[in-house]
Please model this.
Amino acid sequence: MPAAEVDIDIALVQRLLEDQHRDLLGLPLSLVANGWDNVLVRLGKDLAVRLPRHSAAAVLVANEIEWLPLITPGLPLPVPEPVRVGGPTDYYPFGWTVVPWFEGHPAGAGDPIDTTVAAETLGGFVAALHRLAPMDAPLNPWRGGPLEDRDDLTMKRLRAVQPLLVDGGVSPPALADAWRRAVETPRWDGAALWLHGDLHPMNIVASGGYLAAVIDFGDITSGDPATDLLGAWSLFGSADRAVFRSAAASLNDPIDDDTWQRGRGWAVTHSLAILSDADSPAPLRTCALRALREASTA
Model:
């Protein structure tokens, strides 16, 4: 996990609100998460304050501030479009946001969900999101590009986590074969489409057995739509994966076999990155292992 460049606590959030959004003072504050990039503090019942921990994360928050209002219309699930924006100060150097609070739990942890309904819902979300992106959409060297650019690093990670794979019921040779087939699949040659960039089950909120929101658009970028298909392997089995594929194509051209194969490749490379990081939380590692099991057998 990157080192924090600033200490963030309730007192800091209280001070920021007092200086920039005084009408929100008086709402109770509680620390919810101290993540890889951001600290999340719940504000009252319906809001949360999202504060970058380091300068790289501040760039991601700036992207959300600029672009989320443009892509939110037409999406079938709520997303954390900022309702307030805060600026840097002499005691906190980054921009920050106040966003909606979504009740529930990550789709990859907590109470069971109806996976068939979830597959259709998430597929519909992906279809609605994957619209033509403008030329000045945010750049992200880690998302949306050719899988072969990630080949060496992915294979290095696969070798490094082989004991974890075996313990988790994943065949390393079968996984390597799935990755190789994805890398050898023709590149995306269509227009660059909007991408969430990190659409794994811990960034999908569920409530009452159904999907309720999609969060954390820090990796928002444009490029190959296969990037956003990784949830098909980390959240669903084969039958529900077919439901997802059909729903994800319903508003756009059908998802062709090459794009689907690259989507499996994204599930592999993304999940291996999670497993190779000792700071990855246990629920996220569980989702990653499931994705690798599914990807190596599907």
About this structure: The CA atoms of residues 69 and 81 lie 6 Å apart. The longest helix spans residues 257-275.
